Give the backbone structure.
Amino acid sequence: MKLIGEFPVAIDNKGRLRLPTALLRQLGEKPSEAEGYEFVLNRGFEKCLTLYPKPVWDNITAKLNRLNRFNDRNRMFFRSFYLGATPVVTDSADRILLQKQLMDYAGLNAEAILIAMDDRIEIWSPVQYEAMLSIDPNDFADLANDVMGGGDEGVGDTEE
C-alpha cells in the first residue's frame, strides 16, 4: 500500500469526517457494498491522529506481540501505543467517527488535514499542521541528509 496526498476535510458537529474519494480509491475496493473500509484510529506520535488500514494495524500489532512484556520499557511503549486505539469502519457515506478524547488530543474541531503517507493516514488540525510545516528549508535539507544520506542510520541512494 502506497498512499499519498494531502486532503483538507470538514468535521461535522457529531465528530464525523468523510474520507475523500481520491484517498479511498488508493485503498482499493471495499470488501462489499454492505461493509465499509476498516481502520484503527489512534494517537499519533505528534499532536495528530493516525488512521491505520486494518491490515496495516494487524501487521504492526503482530510485531508488538513479539515484544518481551517483562521489560518495563516495552510495557510502557505497548501501553502508550495502544492508548486511545479505536476500531472504525466507514459508513455508507464514507465517513468515520472520531472519538471526543482523540479529537481533544489532536486539537481537532471543524476542519482537519489528512496526510496520506505510505501505509497510514495522519489527521491534523490545521493549526498543528501549519506549526509542523514551519520547518526551515535548511533544517529540512539537514534532516534529509541525516535520514536519506546513508550515514549510520540513513538509507542512502538505493539505485540498483
Remarks:
- The first strand starts at residue 3 and ends at 10.
